[in-house]
UniProtKB/TrEMBL annotation:
This is Polysaccharide biosynthesis/export family protein. It comes from Massilia litorea. Belongs to the BexD/CtrA/VexA family. It is a multi-pass membrane protein. GO terms for biological process: monoatomic ion transport. It is found in: Cell outer membrane. Gene3D superfamilies: Outer membrane lipoprotein wza domain like (3.10.560.10), wza like domain (3.30.1950.10). It comes from the Bacteria.
């Protein structure tokens, strides 16, 4: 079937029922996505492959095995770089999630918190030492990362550490949002899943954006406001592309920002909104003669890339057709009539 033979999409009249159905659909989609991301009480950091651990067994400096400077100064900040004996600092978790520790050999610490890893080492060392006192902490967090891109000041990789990596934490580490950022269109990619986050909508719903928890491998992209354009054309005073206000722009606002419907040529019965989705193209129509049309236009929320089109009246179309068929004839007729 040729493209010209395809049936045009049906026209859906904009009514209160349609507006309520669209609003409910948006609410359900938003809540479905959020439920998978919200973590009110973040769990503590768990050790992973690549992390660098500081492990000190007090009163047993021989167990450091050159991995830490001393029991008194176990951090990398206290190590003298010029001292070759202290060049290696900490225990690196290998690809199998294990560390090699004196006396007890290989110990699996992958997936353990600092507290659980310390308890495990204490239990194993108790077979060789009397009441071992172990201190364990992560010196360098290198096993988990997220990537922040888009309209932020410092895009790039962010390492997950002992501070929970929430969405707001990641954005703050990236220097914050640029003035061109669209706070309503923050995309979060996790594996094959993709989520859209609207910060302002979260606040309005009473949801703390700080409870949106990121995971290792997540990609956060902050879209630009320029990507959320609405195109208004046809019989309006000033046809142009409009930028949405943090993800929200109603049909009434779009018409108002373009100067309104042309009183000379605009047909108030034929105000159309064309919306293309991955599945289909939808065409909505508003008849502004209806008493409640103003309220419906204010309640009908547009989406990025929507096209608003106001059709011309039959008389305006007839005048234009005559002008094309007989250039200058209509103008001459009007001028002659005015002279009489």
């Amino acid at each position: 079937m040729h493209g010209t033979d395809e049936l045009a999409p049906p026209t859906e009249m904009i009514t209160e029922k349609l507006i309520n159905a669209e609003r409910e659909q948006r609410r359900q989609v938003a809540n479905e996505d959020l439920d998978r991301l919200l973590v009110p009480n973040p769990p503590p950091y768990v050790i992973g492959s690549g992390d660098l651990l500081s492990i000190v067994v007090w009163d047993h400096p021989e167990l450091a095995n050159g991995s830490v400077a001393s029991a008194i100064a176990p951090t990398s900040a206290t190590v003298d770089p010029g001292n070759a004996t202290n060049a290696a600092v900490g225990f690196v978790v290998d690809h199998a999630g294990q560390i090699q520790f004196p006396l007890i050999g290989m110990v699996a610490v992958d997936g353990l918190t600092e507290e659980r890893a310390r308890a495990l080492l204490t239990t194993k060392l108790a077979k060789y030492l009397t009441s071992p006192n172990v201190t364990l902490r992560v010196l360098a967090y290198r096993s988990k990362r997220v990537y922040v891109d888009g309209e932020v000041k410092q895009p790039g990789l962010q390492a997950i550490n002992d501070i929970p990596m929430t969405l707001m934490e990641a954005l703050n580490r990236a220097g914050g949002l640029l003035p061109t950022a669209d706070q309503s269109r923050i995309a979060l990619e996790r594996g094959k899943a993709r989520y859209r986050i609207n910060l302002r909508d979260l606040v309005q719903k009473g949801i703390n954006p700080g409870s949106v928890m990121l995971a290792h491998g997540d990609v956060v992209r902050v879209h630009s406001r320029d990507e959320s354009k609405i195109f208004v054309s046809g019989e309006v005073i000033t046809p142009k592309a409009l930028t949405m206000h943090d993800g929200r722009l109603t049909l009434n606002e779009a018409l108002g920002e373009t100067g309104g419907i042309s009183p000379l040529s605009g047909d108030v019965r034929q105000i159309y909104v064309v919306r293309k989705t991955a599945e289909r193209t939808r065409v909505f129509q508003l008849d502004a003669r209806i008493a409640s049309s103003l309220a419906m236009a204010e309640g009908f929320e547009l989406q990025p890339k929507d096209i608003v089109y106001v059709a011309a009246t039959p008389l305006a179309n007839w005048n234009r057709s005559i002008s094309l068929l007989i250039p200058g004839a209509l103008t001459s007729a009007v001028t002659a009539t005015n002279r009489q």
